[in-house]
# Entry
Amino acid sequence: MECLEQLLKVIVISELRYVEGAINAKAPLMRIFMEQCAIERSNFILNVWRVALKQNQKTTLSDLYNWHNQLYGKDYLHMQIGLNLNIDVLDRKALEICRFMLQMNLPDELTAILTEQSIKIETSLLALVQIRSLSEN
# Structure
């Protein structure tokens, strides 16, 4: 599951960049878009945790908290994400990993989650181009 770990790392950074983008957005449309993308990335991370990592095991809130600290770090709200990490590049890398993983023999539920996330990433990449062009005019 090394691919899944790499995907989660990229998605976490992407999520944080979308949060930063929402905070710094000047246009309301861009802010709403960035917020929605951050929520989608967060939901994907939780779905992967539920389906792939914990499956049907009994888990506690402390398990989720420990995993959260492992992904984000203990003080992630004060973390500065590098400004040179372009959201487009992060999403394209996540899409590449998703597509690669979809070629693997994975459980159906994980395949469904990856397919859904691939579609959301593709949609957000296209939408971002449109929103940027609207913002320029």
